Amino acid sequence: MTVSVTQEGDIACVTLDNPPVNALGQAQRAGLADAVAQTNAMLGLRAVVLLCAGRSFVAGADIREFGKPPMEPHLPDVLAQIEGARVPWIAAIHGTALGGGLELALACRYRVALRSAKLGLPEVTLGLIPGAGGTVRLPRVIAAADALTMVAGGKPVGAMQAQDMGLVDALADADLLDAALRFGATLADRPDPGPVLARPVLNPDPAAFDRLAAKLAARARGRNSPKEAIAALRRALTLPASDALAAERAAFLRLRDDPQSKALAHVFFAERGAGRLDRLKGISAPAPDRVGVVGGGTMGAGIAAACLLAGRYVTLLEQTPEAAEAAAARVTGILQDSLSRGVIDTGQHAACLNAFTATSNAADLSGVQLAIEAVFEDFDVKRAVLAQLETVTAPDCVLATNTSYLDVTALAATMADPSRLVGLHFFSPAHVMKLLEIVVPDAVSDNALASGAALAKALGKITVFAGVCDGFIANRIMSAYRADCEYMLEEGALPWQIDAAMVDFGFPMGIYQMQDLAGLDIAWAMRKRRAAEGKRPANYVRIPDILCEAGRFGRKAGRGWYDYSSGEPLPDPEVERVILDESTRKGIVRQAFAAEAIMARILSVMQAEGDAILREGIAARAEDIDVVMINAFGFPRWTGGPMYLRDQPPRIASD
Ligand code: 3H9
């Protein structure tokens, strides 16, 4: 039974129960339609409260049904029945009311929400627009501009903001059902606002709407759905409600078959599947509460801040009191910034500060349950830190290395107990970037792996398990396509042409601007180390070394692949001359590269490296590689990722 009806005095309670997030599939739609018929037939009712069992209100239509033929009853019809019910329905919202879930709540006459609840229409993030009246009902409940932001931006709002907007009629602190029943008892004293669809749209200021629409459309870049969402909102403001509803439904059904929405659904499920590892089935570990971080540079401070923001106690170890103080300043700077940007409130900020200790005394790590080293990327340095950690922490404390490239199995082999070591590869800035690669060395215990995974979940990271190899998944693929881009430079392309091709494809920035932002000197130092170890390939490209020798370390130096003297990245004739000279020196006849040819090459290198990674068992599934490339390097999400894209018909990268 997914929908049940009970009675509390003169109020009926309709409870939807479809774990884990009450997604609306055919059975739930049918159950709701039955509940409308049943409650319509009940005598002496004042109202109906609609609530959900489990951790959340409705998270939307069941995305798993999208690839299948539509099944009756359709959601718009069920919502019309709720809106036209004999007595008003009150949605009682906890957790999240998203997509079809918020549309369901909008078909109710009133909405009561727990303070912690979130409400939103995130369909654009799935390449869709609302398909059950969301674009038509929302601007009849909140101001048109707010509705546009929610529909075309896709970001949910908190219940308190929703109340300010007029989307929520009452807030509850704890007992939601009780609050909804009490709200129901007051209905006789309130003027009836009538069914939402019968109300006029709110504040349809066309000029303000157009300005906001232009801003949101610019942000959409290659994605089709935000532009469709804007068009749907525009129709809702100008057409009769019934016409706008019909047009919204037609657009929703069209977009549901659009390659972008199929790709985005692939990513949605891939991100949720990536954090699963067969060997951990049935094994769970509590997320460590007390975390140690060794090294307080940019990465270590970011990791410490990420842990604090996720409610952990953090002890950060540096080599000297001065270094500990500098690291503490970095961490508190991040926390202050999080406070200023509204990521945390003053209470949470104070709690983070209380939970944080920076020290130069290794013994202070004795009580931590998991310690992450984020020290200089050098095998011997990391080996020494791990040896120290083994002596100062308890034997059951999990140890983690944040190395980007080093052999984690070899590092573990230097330890007294190699089963304690797991790789936790964060991306910088660690408190912002969603991706975390969990690197699985040969000797790691299930418990250490499960603890690392539990910490990642507590930090809200998208996790992907990776085997041990040079660069794991993300950096290995990046190294491969970066190398090929350098060959393209020698063969005839220029950095700004390669960057433009990548941006046109949908990347937020090209590989050369990205390198300039990160700084060219770290990779240069690594190349020199590898050369000293005799690891220089025969067809080595010298161009980046020549730039570094000239002090062109990127944005921070004002010069790198680009010239930043004006503040903006500008193509630089000096860089072009270095590239042309190198082509001449190697006897390469330069040829022009079209943007499509550049992208085709980059994609084929990514896919070939991805295939090698799968063959070697470094990644378990092709979709794990998609998840990594999207979240580490901004590979355009709406294409589904490089591995997914390869199996699709061409031309889905842009509209
Ligand atoms: C829509 O509503 C269209 C309508 O306008 C029109 C209709 C006509 N369907 O994320 P989690 C699964 S479009 C099916 O790990 P969390 C998810 O796969 C939809 N399954 O938990 C996972 O399964 P598993 C608009 C869904 O607590 C499990 O639930 N709605 C759906 O971190 C737990 O998910 C959205 O875009 C679904 N709609 O986050 C919201 N949602 O355990 C999409 C979740 O087998 N959902 N699952 O891996 C979310 O954003 C997050 O899941 C949510 C919970 C915030 C709700």
From TrEMBL:
> What is the main EC category here?
oxidoreductase
Give the InterPro entries listed for this entry. 3-OHacyl-CoA_DH_NAD-bd, 3HC_DH_C, 6-PGluconate_DH-like_C_sf, ClpP/crotonase-like_dom_sf, Enoyl-CoA_hydra/iso, NAD(P)-bd_dom_sf
Q: Name one GO biological process term.
A: fatty acid beta-oxidation
Predominant location = other
**GO MF annotations for this entry?**
(3S)-3-hydroxyacyl-CoA dehydrogenase (NAD+) activity; enoyl-CoA hydratase activity; isomerase activity; NAD+ binding
- SUPFAM superfamilies of this UniProt entry? 6-phosphogluconate dehydrogenase C-terminal domain-like, ClpP/crotonase, NAD(P)-binding Rossmann-fold domains
Pathway(s) served: Lipid metabolism; fatty acid beta-oxidation
The 3-hydroxyacyl-CoA dehydrogenase NAD binding domain sits at 291-465
Q: What is its EC number?
A: 1.1.1.35
> Where would one find coiled-coil regions in this protein?
none
Q: Keyword annotations for this protein?
A: Fatty acid metabolism, Isomerase, Lipid degradation, Lipid metabolism, Lyase, Multifunctional enzyme, NAD, Oxidoreductase, Peroxisome
Q: Which reaction does this enzyme catalyse, per its entry?
A: a (3S)-3-hydroxyacyl-CoA + NAD(+) = a 3-oxoacyl-CoA + NADH + H(+)
What the entry lists under Gene3D superfamilies is as follows:
1.10.1040.50, 2-enoyl-CoA Hydratase, Chain A, domain 1, NAD(P)-binding Rossmann-like Domain
Q: Give all residue intervals belonging to the 3-hydroxyacyl-CoA dehydrogenase C-terminal domain.
A: 471-564
PANTHER family from the entry?
Answer: 3-HYDROXYACYL-COA DEHYROGENASE
The name under which this protein is listed is: 3-hydroxyacyl-CoA dehydrogenase
